[in-house]
Amino acid sequence: MLKNVRRVDQQEEADLFYIPFFTTISFFLLEKQQCKALYREALKWVTDQPAWKRSEGRDHILPVHHPWSFKSVRRFMKKAIWLLPDMDSTGNWYKPGEVWLEKDLILPYVANVEVCDAICLSTTESKRDTLLFFRGRLKRNAGGKIRSKLVAELNGAKGVVIEEGTSGEGGKEAAQKGMRRSIFCLNPAGDTPSSARLFDAIVSGCIPVIVSDGLELPFEGILDYPKIALFVSSSDAIQPGWLLTCLKSVSRGNIKKMRANLAKYSRHFLYSSPAQPLGPEDLAWRMDMEMLDKRKFSTSLTTRSLWDSTCRSSFYNRKEIMTYAPFYWSCKRYGIRCFIPAVLSLTLSLHMVHESKGIECRYVKYSCHVG
């Protein structure tokens, strides 16, 4: 895809318009009123352009990679394609109608630690004597309240290391060392569902254990995350002894496979200059072009293999899913909903089984045919 992306000088020749205005940097570096003035200036310049007026911004790409950035004016640019860290399903950061999966694109955070390459993975394999590692803020707001509950459940347990995070080079070095000595890395929700810690774990060869019920991930629908991460519901994770029992039940063979997959998948999360094939820049352009053609990727949260109370995958017979139409499927925990626009014929059959807490799931079949 990178070879097919070409910069042009005339608006009339462009299919997509990237707005190189880094909304997050200005938010952190400027005083509040200075930042708002800069946002208004940028907004006026962009919305005065003929290309914006022609499409109302639907073919424009805007980086909004922090929930606070561009907040004062983003309602005027909500039709553009936003580059986001997550969709924030908690509703704390974005107003209704501002972000949604069929319009916007989730990008990975830049990893804060150095990549553990093939040689590093080989040398650290025998040194991974920690079962579960977490280093970060132990208390957060909103959905991040799960952290304090997990700390109460896991702190002091054998094979578990939980540390309060610190900033600076010292904090970075401690996080890198801890992840490279661990088999699993805990990734709970913070103030938002996502955090850079997930991508630090991936490039460190530490299998992520994701406890963030509302998390949407970068390039989901292209990448098969259950090959590299474990997804655990918040309600199960805080049950006494449940999480550690399940982690200990993962066989050495499966751990080895997942770690090998982490080594393969790391390239998808590593930004570089020049950009590399199948790197995050390449995958972002692929998805941007699909959005432009209105053949949008969408994958529901529940296509993941969520462990149930028996420490088994909750959804059996899970098929590989890649679609060019928005669709959602889930059991009663999330509420079943299906939306398929009349752009193609699609028959989708899913077999869903969930054994914990008496949640009812059933065989569901949606068929849409365009005449």
TrEMBL record:
Family annotation (PANTHER family): EXOSTOSIN FAMILY PROTEIN, EXOSTOSIN HEPARAN SULFATE GLYCOSYLTRANSFERASE -RELATED
Main location group: Golgi
Q: Where is the signal peptide?
A: none
The protein's name in its UniProt record: Exostosin GT47 domain-containing protein
Q: Which UniProt keywords apply?
A: Glycosyltransferase, Golgi apparatus, Signal-anchor, Transferase, Transmembrane
For this protein, the record's InterPro entries field holds: Exostosin, Exostosin_GT47
Annotated membrane topology is: Single-pass type II membrane protein
Family, per the entry? Belongs to the glycosyltransferase 47 family.
A Pfam family hit: Exostosin_GT47
Q: Record's Gene Ontology CC terms? A: Golgi membrane
Top-level taxonomic group: Eukaryota
Give the organism, scientific name. Coptis chinensis
Q: What are the recorded GO MF terms, alphabetically? A: glycosyltransferase activity
The compartments listed are:
Golgi apparatus membrane
Q: Which residues are in the Exostosin GT47 domain?
A: 6-245
